[in-house]
Amino acid sequence: MYMILHLYSDKYLDDMILALSEAGIEDPIVLSGETLGQKMLYDIPLFASFKDSPDIRQGFGSVIMGVAAKEDVDFALAELTESGLDLLKMGMVKVFLIPIGEIIG
To answer: What are the strands of the beta sheet with 29-34, ordered from one edge?
Structure first.
């Protein structure tokens, strides 16, 4: 499976990286960037009045992508939950698992 993981707060990035590594998912690519709300807030003056919106306050997030088995992703999320950090319940993470037809290289 190809994993695309959206982490909506950089506050939890270290925890997520450690959990994925513990699950054996060790070479995904991590991209960091601004959320759409953050971009709108600072690049489009019309949206400046929305600065107190919770969605816009998050500001920055990460996308983690790589090849991973569903069981490994489930293990990583379970480890975080057991440590008291349930990112799914908090709405801080979304994971997409896409079947891979073939890997070349």
So the answer is: 29-34, 60-67, 2-7, 93-98
